[in-house]
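Quick bug: Membrane protein output formatted oddly.
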Amino acid sequence: MVYIALAILFSVAVSVLLKFARRAGIDIVQAVATNYVVASLLAWQLLGATPQAALAAKATWLPLVALGILLPAIFVVLARSVRTAGIVRTDVAQRLSLFVSLFAAFVFLGDVLTGQKALGIGIALVAVLCVLWRKEHGKAEGGAWWAPLLVFAGFGAIDICFKLVAKAGASFAAGLLGAFLIALVLCWVVAIVRAVAGKAPLTARSIGFGVLLGACNFANILFYVRGHQALPHDPSLVFASMNVGVVVLGSLVGALGFREKLSAVNWVGVVLAIAAVAIMTFM
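Here's what came back:
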């Protein structure tokens, strides 16, 4: 369980870093671009990943390109969500995104919808609505709800793409590196164009921040994979521990460390999120 604890810590650490990014004067595009350089190198060195296996099957091309676009795009949205909606809402939205892929599995991939799965999806949707609810002068405040909602949908779409890559026969490591490399190229094209246009000159601060972001981002993935390898017969335990752990730790860090204001409805959403993960675990 040490691996899972480390995965939880690094997952929340990514959110904390993104929380500090704006006040530290970080250009998020440059940071995300550098993040994928670091993540690609670490995937190659530590997971032994090569992109050839993912690129060999033509069926992987479309989901890989989609991943190459979605991964950096959702990272930018994640940064916006952490800044405007807070760590608690963002982490809950990210963790409940698994229910988007679960829904897609029985709609598009031939999975069977059971009563328990339907209950889990229903509770997850209610949890998202509760967590995103903000009230100001008696009306729901819409200024900060769209970013975590995009996080919820975006990470769900990413999970679906990884499932399609795996279904086509590519290993997780190969698909991961392939997606990282596509994201790397696209991000650096955007970063260089912005720098040449004078909108955001390349800075050592943003690139250095990206190195740290990439290390934490990859460590989260690595330790989660190691957790599954250490407990090969208990995937549900790894799954539940990771998702509930991130929701709980993210809530504590956001509420206590950054004094994010949460209403009773928001806390009900956090509890429902944990319940939804529990139902998903014991399907």
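Actually, after a second look the formatting is fine. The radius of gyration is 19 Å. Closing.
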